[in-house]
C-alpha cells in the first residue's frame, strides 16, 4: 500500500518521496549515505493507561532532532511513549503525528517510516536463520528475490555478520543477536528508529558496539534507556516521571536533573 | 469465525514448539506398572486448556506438520514422514481433536472452572478422544484385534491421568495469572 | 553439494509420497530389502556415511524391535520382518529427504502445496510463518526449560513436574506477547508481513 499523501503538508510529501526512492533500492544502495531530513514527531495532549492506571498524563512534545534520548524510572511511561511512535499502541486520548501521519489512520505508512528495536532480541528475532530473519521485514515489499538478497548481503557486511549468514539465530551471542535485531529493522530503510532499552541485556563491550551503531545511523534515533553514557553526544534528552516530561534539555543538564531526582 | 491474528499465530507456534520441547524431559517410570510416562503427550491437553479449542487444535496440527517436515521432535527423537506409516500414527493425529475437545470444554466451563472440572475436561479430550482414535488406528496399522490394541494401550492411561491432573493445575494458575481463553456459550459452540 | 541436495524439494517429496503408498503393495520381504538397499544407496549418493545412517536408525530402534516381537508373536515372523523393513525403509527415505533439503525450501514447498486450499480459508503465508516461528523458538524454549529446571533445583524444589511446567508456560505466554509485538513492529502491515499478499 502506498502511504497517503496529504496535500498542504510539504514536510510529509517530501519525506515520503525520499523514503519511497530509497525503498526502490537504486543501484545497489538501499541504505542512504546522506542524512535524510530528521523525522518530525508531534505529540499533543496524549493520555494512555492500562487497567485503570494512567501511564501517560497529558503529554505534549514536538521532536525534530536527530538524536533524542529518553530516560526515567521504571513505570514512568517511557516505554509506553516509545510504543506510540510506530503505532504499537494508539493513544487513548490526544494526537500523535509522525511527519504529519496519524498512526490510527496510516498505520502501514507509519510502520514503514518508524522502525522499532526492542530490549530483548530473543523475542524480536522471529525466523530461524540470520539470513531469513533479516529479510523478514521485506516480505511485504514488492522487491524481487535478487534485490532482497543484495540488501541482506550489504547489511550483513556492514554489521560484520557475513560469516553467520546461514547460522541459526539461537546460536548467536547476545551482542550478535542485538546487532541482528537492528539489521532486521534497518533493512526496511525507515526514516526513524526507536530503541527501547537496546543495551540493557548486553555486557559493556556489546553495549558500546550498539552505541556506536546508533551513533553512525543516518536516520533519526530515539533511544529509551537506563544506560546514560549511551546518550553522550545526543541532541536532546527527555526525562519522564509518572507519565509526564519533567526535564527536556541537552544531555548534560537533562541527565543531571534526572540523577538528582533519582537520588 | 474471526480471523487468526498475529498473536494467535505466535501462540500456536510457541505451543507447538513447547510440545516439541516436552520430548526432552526425561520420562518418569510409574511404580507397579513399569510403563514410562513421557511429558510430551501432555502437549494436547495443555494446548487445549491454555489456548482454547481452535488455537489448541491448530498448535497440535502444527506439531504434526513439523513431524511431517522431518523434524525429530517426538519423544525418543522420532520424526519424519515415516512416523505416518507407523503403528502409533493415530495417537499423533489424535492430538488435534484431543486439544480441540479439551479446549472446547474449557471454553464452555470457563467461568466456573474448578480443578476437578478441568481435570475431567482434560481426561475427556486428552484420553477418551485420543484413545478413541489411537486404538483403532493401532489395530489396523499393526494388524492387531481391537481388544489387543486396547490392552496394549491401557498401561499408558494411569500416566495420562497424572498428566490430566497436572494440566488442571496449570489451567487454573494460568487462568488467574495470564488468561488467554475467553468463555463461550453453549449456543455458539 | 550432491545431486540430491541440488534437487528441488518438490520431486523429493513426491518420491517419498509415492514410496509411502507404493511400498504398501510390496509383500515380498526380499523385494522390500531391495528398496531398503536403494534407500541406503541414496544416503551414499548424498555423501552420508554409516555413522549418519546409524544416527537416523537409533531413535526408532526400540519401537521397531517391539513391533517386530509383537507382530512376530501374533502374525508370524515373515510378516513381522516385512513390516519392520517397510517402516525402516520409509523412515530412512524420509530422513534422507529431510537431510538433503533446507527447511526453508521445505516451508516454501509447503506454502505452495497449500495454495489450492486458500478458498477454504487456509492462508499459506500464515502457515509458513507459524512453521518458521516454531522452528525459531523450539531451541529457545528447550533452553528455557533447562534453565527453569536448574532454577528449581537450586531453590531445592526438586523436580515436581508442576514446578517445572508452570513457570515454563507463563514464560512462553509472556514471550508470545513480545514476539507478536515484534512481528507487528517489523512489518509494514497491521496484520503481519507475509500475511496479506
How would you explain this protein's 3D organization?
- The complex is a heterotrimer of chains A (263), B (189) and C (197).
- Chain A has 263 residues and is α/β, with parallel strands linked by helices.
- In chain A, 34% of the residues lie in helices and 22% in strands.
- Chain A has 9 helices and 9 strands.
- In chain A, helix 7 (174-186) packs parallel to helix 8 (204-216).
- The model of chain A is unreliable at 1-33 (pLDDT under 50).
- Chain B has a single domain (6-188), classed as Arp2/3 complex 21 kDa subunit ARPC3, CATH 1.10.1760.
- Chain B is built from 8 helices and 2 strands, in the order H-E-E-H-H-H-H-H-H-H.
- Chain B has helices spanning 6-21, 43-51, 53-68, 89-93, 95-108, 115-142, 146-153, 157-177, and strands at 28-29, 36-37.
- Chain B starts with 5 loop residues before the first helix and ends in a 12-residue tail after the last helix.
- Helices cover 78% and strands 0% of the residues of chain C.
- Chain C contains 8 helices and no strands.
- The model of chain C is unreliable at 189-197 (pLDDT under 50).
- Classes of the chains: A alpha/beta (263), B mainly alpha (189), C mainly alpha (197).
- Chains B and C meet through helix 1, helix 3 and helix 8 of B and helix 2, helix 4, helix 5, helix 6 and helix 7 of C.
Q: What key attributes describe this structure?
A:
B: 189 residues; mainly alpha; Arp2/3 complex 21 kDa subunit ARPC3; two-stranded antiparallel ribbon; 8 helices; C: 197 residues; 2 domains; 0% strand; extended
Number of helices of chain A: 9
> By CATH's scheme, which homologous superfamily of chain A applies?
P-loop containing nucleotide triphosphate hydrolases
CATH arch. level architecture of chain A: 3-Layer(aba) Sandwich
Taking the alpha carbons of the first and last residues of chain B, their distance comes to 11 Å
Number of helices of chain B: 8
Largest sheet of chain A: 6 strands, mixed
- The radius of gyration of chain B is 16 Å
CATH topology heading of chain B: Arp2/3 complex 21 kDa subunit ARPC3
Order of helices and strands of chain B: HEEHHHHHHH
- Provide the residue-averaged pLDDT of chain B: 88
Total domain count of chain B? 1
CATH topology of chain A: Rossmann fold
Which class of chain B in CATH terms?
A: Mainly Alpha
Strand order of the largest sheet of chain A: 5-6-7-3-8-9
Largest sheet of chain B: 2 strands, antiparallel
Secondary structural class of chain B: mainly alpha
